[in-house]
Amino acid sequence: MSFEASTSLAEQIADYIGQQIITGELRDHERVQEQKFAKHLEVSRGSVREALLILEARHLIDIIPRRGAVVSALTIQHVENFYEVVIVLYVLLAQKVAAIWKGDDLKPFMEMARDMKELVKNGDEKEFFSMTFKFGQKANPLIKNTYLEEILENLAPVALRTRHLADTVNQNSMEESLEFNNDIIAGVRLRDMGIIKTVVVDYYAKQRDLVIAAIHAAKSKETASVG
Question: What domains, with CATH codes, occur in the chain?
Answer without folding.
Answer: 9-71 (1.10.10.10), 76-226 (1.20.120.530)
